[in-house]
Amino acid sequence: MGEVLELAERAWQGELETTQVHPGRALVGFEELAPGLGFMSAFSNVGVVATEEGLVFLDTSSFFHAKKLHAAIRGWTDARLHTAVYTHGHVDHVFGLGPFEAELAERGEAAPHVIAHEACPERFDRYVLTNGYNGIINQRQFNFPAPVFPKEFRHPDQTVARDHAIEVGGIAIELHHDKGETDDHLWAWVPAHKAIYTGDLFIWASPNCGNPQKAQRYPRDWAMALRRMQALGAETLLPGHGPPILGAARVKQALGEAAELLETLVEQTLALMNQGARLDEVVHGIELPDALLERPYLRPSYDDPRFIVRNLWRLYGGWYDGNPAHLMPAPERDLAATLAEMAGGATALADRAEALAGEGRLDLACELAELASLAAPDDAGVHRVRGSVFRQRADGETSLMAQGIFGAAARESEDRS
Question: Which of 200, 153, 159 is nearest to 59 (CA)?
Fold first, then answer.
C-alpha cells in the first residue's frame, strides 16, 4: 500500500485534519489501484485508464501540478496519452496537458483527443470576460499573494451534450452529464474496473454547492447525479479531490449520504420558500443535518451548507431577498453614516462591535464593524476593531470559503490600522 491508499484509509477513519481541496494542502502522488487503473492525487486529481491504444485521462489536473503529473505517469508507463476528458471547465481540472502535448509534438505524434461537455467552451469564454474578477476571487479564497487566473485555455476537440460512450483500446468508458458544481459537468463510469470518476461531484467535503463568489450551482441535480452513481454498484470511487474510496459498501454509503445531505437542504429550503419566507428566515430556519456533516467525507471544510441554502434561493427565487428595503437600497456608505450619527459616531459602532465580539456574537460584531468602517473609512481605530473582529470570525469558521472572505476583510483593516 502506497501513500495514496494510506491516505484513503486515514481519511475514511476520520483522521484528516485539513481539507484536501486546496492547492497547498493536497497530497501529490500517484498510485496504481489495479492493473490498468491509476490515480494521481493532486489539485485536482486524475483518473488514468491504461488501454492497448494508450492512456485515457479522466481530468488533467491544474497548472500547479502539471509537471508532477507528467513525471508520475512516466514513472508508471511510457504509453502515449490518447484521450483526455474534462469533467468540467474549472481551471484546476484542465491545465495538466501541456507536458504531454509537448512530448507528443517532439515525437511527431498526434495530440491527445480532448472531450468535454458542450457548455465547457462557453465557460472558457466567460472566464476570459471575467479574468480580473476570477483572479481576485482566487486570491481571496486561497490567500494567494496576488490574483491568479489564466487567460488562455486548451479547448476540447469534441463536445458532448448528454450521456456519451467512448471506447479506447477495447476499454469502454461511459460519460454521463449532470449539473452540479457546474452546468458543464461530466462524470465517468469504467465498467471493466467497476470504477466511477466523479469529478467535483465528490470532493471529501460538504458539496461545493454554495460558493458565495462563484456562478450558479445546482444542488437538486447534484443529488440526483449522486443517486445515479450509487445505483451502479461501483467498487472504486475516484473523486475530483481527496483520496479514492475502495469497496462497494463504502462507495454506496459515501454517495448515498452526500445525496441525502443535499436532498434535505433542498427540501427544507423549498418548503420555506413555498410558505413565503424571506431569505433571512430561510437561512436561519434550516436545520442542518449535523450527523451527516460529521462524516469525514462531508465535513464543511471547503463550502458551508448555509451557502448552499443561499444558492438554492438564487436558483429558484432570484436575487430579491424578500426585504423591500433591499430592492432599491441607499448606498451602503450613506446608511452607515446615518447609523453612526445616531449611535454617536463610527467609534461608538466600533466599540459596540468589540463588546459583542467579546460576548461571542461575532455575527453582529461583524455587521457593526463593517458599518463603522464604511462610515469612517480612514479611521485607524475603527480598522483596528474591524481587523480584530473579522480575524476572530475567520479563525472560528470551518469552511475555507468563509475563512477566505473573512480573512481578506481582516487583512484589509490590519493593513490600515
Answer: 200
The Cα–Cα gap between 42 and 240 comes to: 9
Q: Which one, of 29, 31, 35, 27, lies nearest residue 10 by Cα?
A: 27
Q: 80 and 218, same structural domain?
A: yes
Judge contact between 200 and 87, C-beta under 8 A.
yes
Our measurement of the distance from residue 223's CA atom to the centroid of its chain's CA atoms, rounded to an integer in Å, reads: 16
Full domain range(s) for residue 256: 3-261
3-state secondary structure the chain: CCHHHHHHHHHHCCCCCCCCCCCCCCCCEEEEEECCEEEEECCCCEEEEEECCEEEEECCCCCCCHHHHHHHHHHHCCCCEEEEECCCCCHHHCCCCHHHHHHHHHHCCCCCEEEEECCHHHHHHHHHHCHHHHHHHHHHHHCCCCCCCCCCCCCCCEEECCCEEEEECCEEEEEEECCCCCCCCEEEEEHHHCEEEEECCCCCCCCCCCCCCCCCCCHHHHHHHHHHHHCCCCCEEEECCCCCEECHHHHHHHHHHHHHHHHHHHHHHHHHHHCCCCHHHHHHHCCCCHHHHCCCCCCCCCCCHHHHHHHHHHHHHCCCCCCHHHCCCCCHHHHHHHHHHHHCCHHHHHHHHHHHHHCCCHHHHHHHHHHHHHHCCCCHHHHHHHHHHHHHHHHHCCCHHHHHHHHHHHHHHHCCC
Name the domain boundary from 221, 241, 261.
Answer: 261
State the total domains in the chain: 2
- How far apart are the C-alpha atoms of 1 and 365, rounded to whole Å? 49
Domain-located, residue 220: yes
Is residue 70 within 8 A of residue 100, CB to CB? The reply is yes
For the chain, which residues score pLDDT lower than 70? none
**d(C-alpha 405, C-alpha 401), whole Å:** 6
Q: Is 169 left (phi over 0), alpha (psi -120 to 50) or beta?
A: left
pLDDT of residue 398: 93
Q: Which residues pair with 160 in a beta bridge?
A: 117
